[in-house]
Amino acid sequence: MEIVGLVVIIVAVGMYYGLFESVETASRMGNRKVERLEANQIAEDIQYYNKNAITPEDFEKAVAQKATIESYRNL
User: Fold this and answer.
1) Residues 65, 59: contact at Cβ < 8 Å?
2) How many alpha carbons fall within 13 Å on the CB side of residue 2?
3) To 5 degrees, how large is the angle CA 70–CA 62–CA 52?
4) Alpha-carbon distance 14 to 22, whole Å?
5) How far apart are the C-alpha atoms of 75 and 71, rounded to whole Å?
6) Tens digit of pLDDT per residue, the chain (75 long)?
7) Separation between Cα atoms, residue 55 and residue 63, nearest integer Å
8) 23 half-sphere exposure, CB direction, 13 A CA radius
9) Burial 20-55, CB ≥16 within 10 A → b, else e
10) Residues whose CB falls within 8 Å of the CB of residue 20, separated by 6 or more in sequence, listed in order
11) DSSP state, 75?
């Protein structure tokens, strides 16, 4: 019981001095940073896939290679 009372007192003192407000502020800052990183990652993915577009010739070559590999599997 003494431990519970001590924990309650520590939490009350922390609330009085505004400790939890700074924790919330740090949490919001971290969330905004992660959201910016996610937006940057999405933009980089879009740029990557736009630069690496597949031409019809590449597609036909890939289909032919896939057919060759399938024929090797059936030997």
Assistant:
1) no
2) 0
3) 145
4) 11
5) 7
6) 788 888 888 888 877 777 778 888 899 999 999 999 999 999 999 888 888 778 888 889 989 999 999 998 887
7) 13
8) 6
9) eeeeeeeeeeeeeeeeeeeeeeeeeeeeeeeeeeee
10) 14
11) -
Q: Which tokens belong to 20? A: 């939890």
Amino acid at 17: Y
Which single residue is written with the structure tokens 């609330």? 15
Provide the angle, in degrees to the nearest 10, between the axes of the packed helices 19-51 and 2-16: 70
* Sequence ranges of the domains in the chain: 2-73
Alpha helices, H only, the chain: 2-16, 19-51, 56-73
How many C-beta atoms surround the C-beta of residue 14 within 10 A?
Answer: 13
Q: How far apart are CA 53 and CA 43, in angstroms?
A: 16
